[in-house]
Design brief:
94 residues, 3 helices, flat
Length: 94
């Protein structure tokens, strides 16, 4: 069961990264570089593995949900900052 979840995480990350890759073939509005794909892959895979770790180690369901929600929230904040500069750090995308 645990290896199936890890395989699922890797496959989902791969499918999610295929979306901008295919979009680049059909439109000029999506312009990702290899660094963009690497960054997105690290963020998505890291988030998936962190949630997998929580699912394996934390026993209480409410704690699992809360910790995974916090991990996903951090992913959203980082992604938004890199994309459009939500907070305005020097890593902002805009």
């Amino acid at each position: 069961m645990q290896n199936i979840r890890l395989t699922g995480i890797v496959l989902i990350v791969g499918v999610l990264l295929l979306i901008p890759f295919v979009a680049m073939k059909f439109t000029g509005e999506v312009k990702w570089t290899s660094i963009d794909f690497i960054t997105a892959g690290v963020l998505l895979l890291g988030t998936g593995l962190a949630c997998e770790f929580v699912l394996r180690k934390v026993k209480k369901l409410s704690h699992r949900v809360a910790i995974c929600a916090a991990i996903l929230f951090v992913l959203f904040i980082i992604w938004a900052e890199l994309a459009v500069g939500l907070i305005g750090t020097r890593f902002a995308g805009s």
